[in-house]
C-alpha cells in the first residue's frame, strides 16, 4: 500500500511540473494566447478570486452603499471577460 502512495505522488509531481501557471484577472485571452494552440487543457482556477478582483481592484467603492448600476457594470465586465476567454 505504501508503494502505491509513492507512485501516485511521483505521478502527480511529474504532471505538475509539465504545467504552466499564468496569473491574472483581466485580459485573460492575452495571457494565454501564446500557449493556447500547444495545449490540450487550460485549468481556470479560483473563479471566486477572479470575481472578487473585478469587484475590488482599481475601484474605491463603499460596498455598503453601492449603487446597483455600478454592480451591473461590474457584472457586465465579468461576463465580457469570460465570453472573450
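Sequence proposed for the structure above (85 residues):
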Amino acid at each position: 500500500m505504501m508503494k502505491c502512495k509513492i507512485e501516485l505522488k511521483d505521478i502527480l509531481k511529474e504532471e505538475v511540473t509539465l504545467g504552466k501557471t499564468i496569473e491574472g484577472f483581466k485580459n485573460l485571452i492575452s495571457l494565454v494566447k501564446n500557449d493556447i494552440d500547444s495545449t490540450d487543457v487550460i485549468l481556470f482556477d479560483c473563479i471566486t478570486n477572479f470575481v472578487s478582483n473585478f469587484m475590488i481592484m482599481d475601484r474605491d467603492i463603499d460596498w455598503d452603499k453601492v449603487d446597483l448600476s455600478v454592480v451591473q457594470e461590474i457584472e457586465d465586465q465579468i461576463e465580457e471577460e469570460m465570453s472573450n476567454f
